Amino acid sequence: AQKVTQAQTEISVVEKEDVTLDCVYETRDTTYYLFWYKQPPSGELVFLIRRNSFDEQNEISGRYSWNFQKSTSSFNFTITASQVVDSAVYFCALNRGYGGSQGNLIFGKGTKLSVKP
Amino acid sequence: NAGVTQTPKFQVLKTGQSMTLQCAQDMNHEYMSWYRQDPGMGLRLIHYSVGAGITDQGEVPNGYNVSRSTTEDFPLRLLSAAPSQTSVYFCASILDGMGTEAFFGQGTRLTVV
User: Fold this and answer.
1) Residue B75, preceding bond cis, omega within 30 degrees?
2) Which of A44, A45, A96, A111 is the best residue to mutate to test the B interface, defined by the most B CB atoms within 10 Å of its own CB?
3) What is the pLDDT of residue A15?
4) Which of residues 31-70 of B touch A (CB under 8 A)?
């Protein structure tokens, strides 16, 4: 069975603080893909990053960085120097790399991040 | 390039009514799927399609029906609406099954009274 756990339901920080959103996944597949999506208060889902199971390199994009560790089945997301515009619900998702359910995302329950000015 | 277009954005139904949520994509994506989002539950898969003429059930299919007669369109039908189907619905399309990212529609907020 595949599962994504985002243990942090809500996080509140003050602007300019760093914040890490945790994501732990379960899968028996050797090929799989991990994603982060952002859902701002307006409601749309915005793709942030994709990582495949063979690429454990960390990724940095501006104030955003992602740490993928297969040994702990984690794909954590860090926002450095948070801003009010980062306030949103963030979803981690898993997609298996083969089989009939390819293309279907298994989502965590999301972490609501509130950044206070 | 419109991406994924969902209509309507808002809908109120009475219990027992039926309706169709429309979803269309213009990116020639192979995979399309429907999710529902409920508070504290994340997004859960209702039905999906891996190509025209092929559909299958997801995690929460009961009360919903789909068909995919063309690559572009993937409508979701509520057969007899129930208050438990009050939710936000998202349609998604994915180019292929090789881990490419999903593109989502704007969502439909459905209330069943």
Assistant:
1) no
2) A45
3) 97
4) 31, 33, 35, 40-45, 48, 50, 56, 58
